[in-house]
Amino acid sequence: MSEKNAFYAVIKPYRQDFITNPKEEEDKIMVDHFHYLKTLLEQNKLFFAGPTLIPEDPFGVIILQTETEEEAKQLLENDPSVKTGIQKIVDLRPIRLSLIKE
After folding, report:
1. pTM for the full model?
2. 18-70, pLDDT tens digit by residue?
3. How many domains does the chain have?
4. From its phi and psi, is residue 66 left (phi > 0), alpha (psi between -120 and 50) or beta?
5. What angle do CA 33, 38, 42 make, to 5 degrees?
6. Distance (Å, rounded) from C-alpha 65 to C-alpha 8?
7. Is 49 exposed, middle or buried (0-12, 13-18, 19+ CB in 10 A)?
């Protein structure tokens, strides 16, 4: 098996008031987004995921562990919130996980 690499990603909602004024269809997609990330966690492809807590500047941080950057990008592009266009990938870069609390 190949060694896994870590990738840091930021996804951002397509509109500024996404958190404070969600639409019903967006809520349903975000439930799918959560379940998708949970599946990646179970597959050991997700190391960390979570939203920031400033409503005026919403975005999510995701750290994936995959063999290649292309695989990380594909996983992000298949996220229901990205696939449907309510969120977009604004940053994806390799990262070294140097210190991890166990």
Report:
1. 0.92
2. 888 889 999 999 999 999 999 999 999 999 999 999 988 999 999 999 999 99
3. 1
4. beta
5. 150
6. 9
7. buried
